[in-house]
Structure prediction request, 77 residues.
Amino acid sequence: MNTKEKLISKISSIKNESILEDIMKMVDLELDMSDDVVYLNSEQKSFIDKGLEDIESGKLINHQEAKTMTKEWLEKR
Prediction:
């Protein structure tokens, strides 16, 4: 089974409508991006700047910590 088939299978088993809507937004975004130029609004630019500041000041977590935090957050939804 290739990645696309695995993904379709997993998505098919999701019952949470909110998660399915989020997945749909990501897929729509990917399909709508016909060129490589992404235009950001001021709020998005501000979030990126804040993230860069966090990186510079060492406010980071590793991948495993992020996965754990995301899993816990999703379980609370």
